[in-house]
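The protein record filed here.
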Amino acid sequence: MKKRRLWIAYWRTQKKNLTILLFCIAVFEMIFFVYQFPMEGAVYGTSLCLGGVIVMEAYGFYRYAQHYRSVERIEKEILYGTQEFPMTTDEVERKYQDLIELLLTEKKDSDLEKERAYHEMEEYYTTWVHQIKTPIAAMRLLLKDDTEQTREILMELFRIEQYVDMALQYVRLGGKSSDYQIRECDLDSIVRQAIRKYARLFIRKKIRLEYEGVDIKVITDEKWLLFVMEQILSNALKYTQKGKIRIYLLDQQRKELVIEDTGIGIAAQDVPRVFEQGFTGYNGRKQNSSTGIGLYLCRRIMERLSHKIWIESEIGKGTRVILGLETISLEYE
């Protein structure tokens, strides 16, 4: 099929030459006919011309196919900057090659500049996060009185720390690679770390937690998966005013972990878009506290880890977030 398409493409390039050839043959035959020359001579001359044309066109197609394969090779190599353009005597094609070389050089310079700017931004935000955590820790030490007002301030400090960590993860995730440490991890340990972080919020909101533990190992990066679970638990607690949050294993073979709440739920028209960057939906606009970044980061991280994440929800009945953790191959963007 590919060879047939190549033949068709080649004959399209020869359309003008074939038209001229057929015109010349027609004139040749007409002259013989008008002057009543022996037609055997006309047939013989035409046969010689057609034979020569067939040989030349066969050679032309061979050169065309060689050139096509060279361009295919360049297409595969061009992203890595290792391409070497085929030799050509066509000045127009040589100009195109020079133009491509120029564009590739500019792209390479642009990519290097973007990478440098990204590293500078990452360094700045990393420094900023460490610096901002110092006054937060100091404020925690100053808030020693166990009063309602103190507890409120501590909760706000906790939220600030969440947003600070989210900003840092957002910047780090934008890089071509991150500090992944893929290994076999105890899923129960990761879940319990996330629960401990939000234990105070569970108690404060009087939300019941149902979790009996999961005896399963997953191939993942513990730090990044923990961040995903923390974001999901944070959302569950934010949108659940009463009831419970349940964490359980849906399918042990597929390693599908579910975080289910009895919160306000998500509108049906919003469910397909909850993982989009900056999308807040009806709930986010109503509460005016959603950034539309948390679930977007979760999706990006899960894709990087070759895991899956999806949501099932119904207004007024709650939300189920399912994490599919069976895939072990890594994808880098």
Q: What stands out?
A: DSSP finds ten helices and seven strands in the chain. Residues 328-333 have pLDDT under 50 and may be disordered. Residues 91-142 form the longest helix (52 residues). The longest strand covers residues 244-251.
